[in-house]
Amino acid sequence: AHKEDYLRGLYILEEEKGEIKSIDLAHYLNVSKPSVSEMVYELQREGLVLHRRYSKPQFTPKGRRIAQKLTLKHRLIELFLKNVLKISPKNIHNEAHRLEHAFSDESITKLRKLLGNPKKDPHGKPIPQ
User: In the structure, how many helices (H) and strands (E) does the chain have?
Assistant: First the structure.
């Protein structure tokens, strides 16, 4: 899993559960708990999360901005795949996951405009503004 996947996973878990637990992130990303610990340490070194031993990871303002942007990209792409390209709903998450790393900020801005500045993704989850 990419660093971006961890950030987006942390964001989604916080959004759904109101808190972030390493074990939940391990399940969400289908990775081991040691892999999560290693990446959380790396994210902390980069100033994206705060994490103390025996406590839950938390975003720094910079980390939250990046995670929101990644989530925005993913959810806009899902909406595009479903509404414009008519991709099967069961395939849109994985397809969006592959594409989100390739789309530039400019493309995402234009995609948002094309889709009429949507507020929710195909699953009803909010698209960060």
Answer: 6, 2
